[in-house]
Specification:
The complex is a heterodimer of chains A (415) and B (102).
Chain A (H helix, E strand, L loop, with lengths): L4 H16 L8 E2 L6 E5 L7 E5 L12 H14 L7 H5 L2 H14 L3 E5 L2 H12 L5 E5 L4 H8 L4 E5 L4 H10 L6 E6 L11 H10 L3 E5 L14 H4 L8 E5 L10 E5 L1 H10 L1 H4 L6 H16 L2 H20 L10 E7 L1 H13 L2 E2 L1 E3 L9 E6 L6 H17 L7 H8 L2
Parallel strand pairs in A: 3-12, 5-6, 5-7, 7-8, 8-9
Antiparallel strand pairs in A: 1-2, 2-3, 4-10, 9-10, 11-14, 13-14
Helix pairs in contact in A: 2-12, 4-12, 5-6, 5-10, 7-8, 13-15
Chain B lengths: L19 H18 L8 H8 L10 E7 L2 E7 L2 H13 L8
Antiparallel strand pairs in B: 1-2
The chains are: A alpha/beta (415), B alpha+beta (102).
Chain lengths: 415, 102
């Protein structure tokens, strides 16, 4: 079929529709490496602007850490650039298995399998482990990759209201006739920054004979006293059946993800998970870099502790300035603005003040819940935070929202 | 439906008052539908033969299909009953409600 004028026009109309709806995503070019201080070219062709980055998943500030970069360089020299293979043909090196073992020890599980990304891990794990006689019961705010993975799986899917344990219990009762009940949740929810009630979820799982799945991508390396994740934070370390996480956020920020958990489940993924079977192995230099990242987070908690301090300082500063914040303990701190245009306008004004943040609105977040999601990093210094807070105060005052809550803001700007 | 019993069970609304004649009409209607859906039991067609050649155990039956559209979004669910199909469709559409953040 030719790529006719009609087909081209239909694509253009759809793209124009995204622009009209304010949903068109534009890339901003970072002129250099990832960090707290970056230079951004935006819009394309504009002169680079130096800004402080408050929207990266670079929680531990390891994305450009010299030890990690050096380890990756050594891995490049010793193990090459690529493997030109999937894992099970000729794509597994000694360092892949070593990284899987290190992740197993770090996460406190029985075994681990690497995937090209956590998106791939989530896309593959359910189909590999569940069948038509099973049910997946997911929190309604789980990550999009989990939703995609659920769609690819033949098991029945169901959801429970966000962090509503009564509703989850109802669903577990409803599905007692199924062979396997799998409760699915994020550890830290990426939109709101709140932490799953894993202690209560595990208790319900034990009561109703269910398995527990946690995507800890926004937690691994820094949530919990030693940074092992949400299960450590909630006192259920060792009790989670399946953990997926990423090497693309706190743990170095490059790419790669994993499924970690019960030995047999990991083995099922090794045999049946299609993103593992049909996609190239994680590049050797990334594996080498990730091993160094785990060395760093295993040996001390300094970066994790700095991140915790930064988060408290930032949250307190924004609250004292009069911003309406989503409550939580994670380094994701959403500033609630409720109105989509206000979120976009404030993000633009903050960029002009040298602060890089992004506004999120429907359908990315629920209708009438537009926000700016700020994300803290161990790489932020006190000076970064103070400059960021000053900019927020200035821009918040300009828009007249300081000290105002949802009711007043929506009365001023609409939903 | 099970092949050995050669019968079907149909849930009817509680509010529906059914006379014996009405039930007989329904029974005949369903038997007709089954006959039509099975191609009059004329034996396997080309597609069926091809699948069985590849060791697929193939069965078919009449079922409810429920569909939901919203702009470019589309979901479809099947069920033994209309209620089952709609319940599954509801579960599928609920996965669309928010896109989420990266």
């Amino acid at each position: 079929m030719a790529f006719s004028t009609t087909i081209r026009e239909s694509y253009r109309q759809e793209l124009n529709g995204l622009r009209a709806a304010g949903l068109y995503k534009e890339e901003r070019f970072i002129l250099g490496n990832q960090g707290a201080d970056i230079e951004v070219e935006f819009p394309a062709g504009a002169a680079g602007r130096k800004v402080i980055n408050f929207c990266a998943n670079n929680y531990l500030g390891l994305s450009s850490h010299p030890d990690v970069v050096a380890a990756a360089r050594e891995g490049l020299a010793s193990h090459g650039y690529g493997m030109s293979s999937v894992r099970f043909i000729c794509g597994t090196q000694d360092i892949h298995r070593r990284l899987e073992d290190r992740l197993t020890a770090f996460l406190g599980t029985e075994d681990t399998i690497l995937f090209p990304s956590c998106m791939d891990a989530n896309a593959g794990v359910f189909e590999a482990c569940l069948g038509a006689d099973d049910v997946m019961i997911a929190d309604r705010l789980v990550h999009a990759s989990i939703v995609d993975g659920m769609r690819l799986c033949k098991a029945m899917n169901d959801t429970y209201k966000h962090s509503d344990m009564n509703h989850l219990e109802e669903k577990l009762k409803e599905h007692q006739d199924k062979r396997i009940r799998l409760i699915i949740t994020d550890g830290v929810f990426s939109m709101d920054g709140d932490i799953a009630k894993l202690d209560e979820i595990v208790a319900l799982a034990e009561k109703y004979d269910a398995l527990v799945f946690v995507d800890d991508s926004h937690a691994s390396g820094f949530i919990g006293k030693t940074g092992r994740g949400t299960h450590e934070h909630c006192g259920v370390f060792g009790k989670i059946d399946i953990i997926t996480t990423t090497l693309g956020k706190g743990l170095g920020g490059a790419s790669g993800g994993c499924v970690s958990g019960r030995k047999e489940i990991v083995e099922m993924c090794r045999q049946k998970a299609r993103p593992y079977l049909f996609s190239n192995t994680v590049a050797p230099m990334i594996v080498a870099g990730a091993l160094k990242v785990l060395d760093l987070v295993f040996t001390n908690t300094e970066r994790r502790d700095t991140l915790e301090w930064n988060t408290k300082y930032w949250r307190q500063g924004l609250a004292e300035a009069g911003f309406d914040l989503k409550q939580g303990d994670s380094p994701i701190v959403p500033v609630m603005l409720y109105n989509a245009k206000l979120a976009q306008d404030m993000a633009r004004d903050l960029f002009a003040e040298g602060i890089y943040v992004v506004g999120f609105f429907f359908p990315v977040v629920p209708q009438g819940a537009a926000r700016i999601r700020t994300q803290l990093s161990a790489a932020h210094t006190r000076a970064h935070l103070d400059k960021g807070l000053a900019a927020f105060r200035k821009v918040g005052a300009k828009h007249g929202i300081l000290g105002k809550g949802k009711k007043e803001i929506t009365e001023m700007f609409g939903k | 439906m099970t092949e050995s019993r050669r019968t079907i069970e149909v849930e009817l609304p509680d509010c529906l008052a059914m006379a014996p004649d009405d039930i007989e009409v329904l029974r005949t209607t369903f038997q007709t539908i089954i006959t039509l859906a099975s191609g009059g039991c004329d034996g396997p067609d080309e597609h069926l033969r091809a699948m069985r050649d590849q060791q697929w155990a193939v069965h078919w039956r009449l079922t409810w299909v429920a569909q939901a559209r919203r702009d470019s979004q589309f979901e479809e669910a099947k069920g033994e009953t209309k209620q089952q199909a709609l319940a599954q469709l509801r579960r599928l559409t609920s996965l669309h409600e928010i896109e989420g953040t990266p």
